[in-house]
Amino acid sequence: MSDDIRTKMGLRPVINVSGTMTSLGASIVVPEAIEAMAAILPQFVEINDLQRKASAVIARLTGGEAGFVTASCSAGISLAVAGTITGPDLLAIERLPETSTPKNEVLVQMGHMVSYGAPVDQSIRLAGGKVVMIGQATSTHRYHMENAITDRTAAAVYVVSHHVVDYGLLNLKEFVEIAHAKGVPVIVDAASEYDLRLFLEQGADIALYSGHKFLGGPTSGIVAGKKELVRNAFLQNMGIGRGMKVGKESIFGVMAALEAWEKRDHVGIRERETGYLNLWKETLSDRPGITALIEPDPTNNPLDRMRVIVSPQEAHITAWDLAARLRSGPTPIIVRDHEVEHHYFYLDPCNLHPGQERIVAARLAEELDKARASNEVIATPFEDLSRHRFDGALRWPD
Ligand SMILES: *Cc1c(COP(=O)(O)O)cnc(C)c1O
Fold first, then answer.
1. Which of 152, 192, 270, 301 would be a feasible disulfide site paired with 105, CB 3.0-4.6 Å?
2. Which domains does the chain have, with CATH numbers?
């Protein structure tokens, strides 16, 4: 542990059972990408030519006609939307986010208006888009979308995420069918999805991915799809895209991560992760007040997680206090806790270095034993946590 670069810097050596979170450093970058980045950093290259090479790799893996690399999937949303508003008009590109045409409306289902760390709609507004929400939180019908499309509609954005409402909304095929019937391009935010082909196959004109999530690339976004729309998005690098630029290392790093993805032993990795889940299930079995369930990923990525349900009266601790205790101490373990007020959190096995699964098991057992030995139920009122949620950020850098 002592030669851990984080401990040397005075940073906590966190173990990530939360998922690919920007706030934790996204993912473990694959060795192929690290080597590629190191190799290109000392060299000069003509960036647009490097992006042409990236386009070919992205096209091959996604089945799209073209592609490029940008700073993040969030940047990809802004650039793709901007491209549908400006087309290849270089002056319009410079003028964004002010738009010179009334054709700047972007349709989004209300149940897709989520935050991935920042609100989806903001990435659209940054590009000069005017968000037009369709449907209600848990329902969108065809008539909502059909009636929302006008001469002012530039694009329709579809979000694939465990955060979105997963019932009652239009699925991608219907969404595409309705948009295309009126000539509206569809942009899919597939930031966190494993399947690099599915959304374009289902008719999306542009599919967006994060380079730093399952792909294990550097922090980046991938824009893929129809050549003309991808080009119009790419041209935004002379406008709003400047602040979202990536260097040669990220472009080349993503190319390497994509090529490594093609060769990755996906079955072997899944087996290893299943081993972790089984170990944790064993650790948690027969513990009072704890139920451990292995559940599939909600957006059908080939990945299972463990749902740990905590009954405070029997476990003598709430799910959120358990999560907080795991997060403290010399080996902080960060669990996936966005629904923790429902008395459960998840353990995500896909960002662990081998051996860390045993530390997770040991810390779970330790904290649960301690809680059981406590005479009182450890129960911080949940409101106290939510009230103080942003205290740290608001004190930054102190
Ligand atoms: C992670 C995520 C984003 C943001 O991706 P970045 O590449 O980190 O900007 C956007 N949308 C969804 C659905 C995500 O999961």
1. 152
2. 28-263 (3.40.640.10), 266-393 (3.90.1150.180)
pLDDT in tens, 201-221: 999 999 999 999 999 999 999
The answer to whether residue 2 scores a pLDDT higher than 80 is no
Task: Find out whether the beta carbon of 159 lies less than 6 Å from any atom of ligand 1.
Answer: yes
Asked if residues 338 and 19 have their Cβ atoms less than 8 Å apart, the reply is no
Question: How does 90-112 read in b/e, with b if 16+ C-beta sit within 10 Å?
Answer: eebbeebeebeeebbbbbbbbbb
> What's the mean per-residue pLDDT of the chain?
97
pTM: 0.97
> 161, 336, 348: which to mutate for ligand 1, most atoms within 8 A of CB?
161
Atom 14 of ligand 1, residue of closest alpha carbon: 191
Average pLDDT of span 107-121: 97
Please say whether the beta carbons of 119 and 165 come within 8 A. no
Cβ of 72 less than 6 Å from ligand 1: yes
Q: Which letter, b or e, does each residue of 338-374 get, where b requires 16 or more Cβ atoms within 10 Å of its Cβ?
A: eebeebbbbbbbbbbeeebbeebbebbeebbeebeee
Spacing, Cα 74 to ligand 1 middle (Å):
6
Q: Residue 154: pLDDT above 70?
A: yes
Buried-exposed string 207-240: b where 16+ CB fall within 10 A, e elsewhere: bbbbbbbbbbbbbbbbbbbbeebbbbbbbbbebb
For residue 329, the model assigns a pLDDT of: 85
